Amino acid sequence: MAALGDEFRSAREARGLTLSDVAEQIHIRSVYLSAIENEDWPSIGAPVYVRGFIRTYARFLGLDGEAAVAAFNQAAPPERPSPVVAAERGRGGPSLWAILGVAIAVVLVAFVAYEWWSYTQSTPGNPLAGPAIAIPTVEATAEAEPAVPEPSSAAEATPVPGLRHALTIRLTQRSWLRVTIDGKTEIEGIFPAGTQRIFTGVTADVRVGNAGGVTASVDGRPPVSLGKDGDVVEQHFVL
Fold first, then answer.
1. Within a domain: residue 157?
2. 226, 205 Cβ separation under 8 angstroms
3. Are residues 65 and 93 in the same domain?
4. 25 to each of 20, 131, 159, how far by Cα in Å?
5. Better-scored residue on pLDDT, 82 or 207
6. Please, are residues 231 and 55 in contact by the beta-carbon 8 Å criterion?
7. In terms of Cα–Cα distance, which of 177, 194, 210 is closest to 136?
8. Which of 28, 43, 75 is the endpoint of a domain?
9. Is pLDDT at 179 greater than 60 in this prediction?
10. Distance between CA 3 and CA 37 in Å, rounded?
């Protein structure tokens, strides 16, 4: 049976496509496509991104995406927790990171509420006519990423009064994210779970590297997931 990388390479060459041709059509850099064909997984990064790229590349070539991901899971080395995380798991009771995550969530909620109140008070008549409101986030270290608890479904489904012409992006899992408002890139990078940003404008283009861990809400409506775990998705919103 052909190796996973050879199967991708053969399927691409059978269609007469170069890596650059594929990269232009599915918006995945050719260096990552080459890493898939060479089974150079560390060059891509975390396994969640590898699975997403494999699934997207396989679908484009007409291969079985889920079977390709399963083959990667068998060939890839098992994911092992960092020493800090392993030590925390071995202890009873709430971990230090869980307590820290709760504290961060409380601070973020209080900060968002204060910023929103201040903004609406300082701009009479049209409180959302200004630039995007950037809410600071806390990036975890590579050794141990603190878990930020998700808000209840009831809180997510409650529309925010007066929130018009606004896009709210929230991460329930760690993901790469780029948001472009009216042609201007507002943020781009890898953000942790619990990150939330509110943007205002006319149109928004959102691209994510782990769609199952990102939700979007337009004009205060209930948030919706942008896709499945590991999927690379790009969506356009009219605010």
1. yes
2. no
3. no
4. 9, 32, 36
5. 207
6. yes
7. 194
8. 75
9. yes
10. 9
Structure tokens at 184: 């201007």
Q: Answer yes or no: do 48 and 99 share one domain.
A: no
Contact present, 170 and 198 (Cβ < 8 Å): no
Domain co-membership, 32 together with 104: no
Contact assessment for residue 175 and residue 210, using Cβ atoms and an 8 Å cutoff: yes
SS3 59: helix
H or E element, residue 190: strand 184-191
pTM beyond 0.85: the answer is: no
Tokens of 76: 């890839």
> Is 81 among the domain residues?
no
Residue 50 is part of which domain span? 4-75
Q: Structure tokens of 7?
A: 């199967």
Whichever domain contains 34, its CATH number is 1.10.260.40
Q: What tens digit of pLDDT does each residue of 155-174 get? A: 444 555 556 789 999 999 99
Angle at 227 between CA 226 and CA 232, to 5 degrees: 95
